Amino acid sequence: MTTVTTTVTAALISSLNILDDITVSSSFNKTATVAIVCLLIGMIIVATLVGNLLVIMAVLLVRKLKIQPANYLFVSMAFADFCVGLFVMPIALIDLLTDRWILGGVVCRFWTSADLTLCTASIVNLCMISVDRYCAVSQPLRYAAQRTRQRIFCYVIIVWILSLIVSISPLVIWPAKSTEGKCQVIQNPVYQIYATMIAFYGPTCIMIILYAKIWLAAKRLSERDRLLTVGTNGSVNGTSLAKPHSPASLNDPSNRSNNNNNNNNLYHYHHHQQHHHHRSPAILQKIPMVHTNKFHEKSEGKARKTLGIMMSVFVICWLPFFLLALLKSQGFLPPNWLDHLALWLGYSNRFVECFV
Which residue ranges traverse the bilayer (predicted)? Predict the structure, then answer.
């Protein structure tokens, strides 16, 4: 009997030791996870602040960028993203690390209002940039004269008015509440539909349509320039296109090989004889060069690729959050990890924009 009791006691002690090891291991894993999350989110916050501050300083301090009115749309977007990194993300990190909302009702209302205003402003700014680019491509001459600083400032004012409409209405009509330990805007279906339409779905549809048109227009221009280049490479009806060279450049083989890629002007020459090509200074006519070569085609392809990457990253980052916003207004309760993941995926778009 004593032997059995001793054996059972030893087994229980052994089990308790194993449980202690598991508890310590679990606690260690949780601490390590929290540390990794804090490190990653801290890097996102710092990158957001530094990247957008550099954009603002570049436009305001570099004269070449400052004199271009359209760049103030980028300043407006960078300012919104910088404020998100400064005011919104740190509070969101605290909310992520705690099991319940601990900062009180005033901070809750400030956080949700700032989040709505700044995130909406960033997205609508991006939409306005697409409108500006489309006008510049579709009506280059007319819009160049209309693209004044006053016009761009009007775009910026429209952006912030729409953003305030999205954020003020819940503050006045449906105030954000800290319920059941959570701080969130009330999930009213009417508000969520019109807010998500203004903040995401509407601007996204506009951007996709306009960037598709810009992409197609750039492709058509590239194809047209390629055909023009093919037509001007040879001689037609006794007319040839070439660039006059200095004697030194004609004698240098490396310069001759690079002339096709470095032409700044094309000159028209009339040939007085059928078998001899003499240039006549009296009829030398300077005409614009068609900047189309392999380097130009690569640049066009790179620009179209950049547009595609930018739109893809934007949709990937924000679509989960706004889908959840509509679903939650219909009674769907996502797990906390999914809610936080969607939110921080959207926030991460803030610093991705700086590098794309």
Answer: 34-60, 72-98, 110-131, 152-173, 193-216, 307-327
CATH assignment at residue 175? 1.20.1070.10
Q: Provide the domain limits for residue 174.
A: 2-226+295-355
With respect to residue 270, please indicate whether it lies within any of the assigned structural domains. no
Q: Say if 78 falls within a structural domain.
A: yes
| Predicted confidence (pLDDT) per residue in 302-338, tens digit | 656 766 787 888 899 999 999 999 998 888 888 888 9
- The full 3-state SS of the chain, as one line of letters, equals CHHHHHHHHHHHHHHHHHHHHHHHHHHHHHHHHHHHHHHHHHHHHHHHHHHHHHHHHHHHHCHHHHCCCCHHHHHHHHHHHHHHHHHHHHHHHHHHHCCCCCCHHHHHHHHHHHHHHHHHHHHHHHHHHHHHHHHHHHCHHHHHHHCCHHHHHHHHHHHHHHHHHHHHHHHHCCCCEEECCEEECCCCHHHHHHHHHHHHHHHHHHHHHHHHHHHHHHHHHHHHHHHHHHHHCCCECCEEEECCCCHHHHHCHHHHHHHHHHCCEEEEEECCCCCCCCCCHHHCEEEECCCCCHHHHHHHHHHHHHHHHHHHHHHHHHHHHHHHHHHHHCCCCCCHHHHHHHHHHHHHHHHHHHHC
pTM above 0.90, yes or no: no
Residue 221 lies in a domain: yes
Condensed to tens digits (0 to 9), the pLDDT of residues 91-122 reads 999 999 887 888 888 898 899 999 999 999 99
Number of structural domains the chain divides into: 1
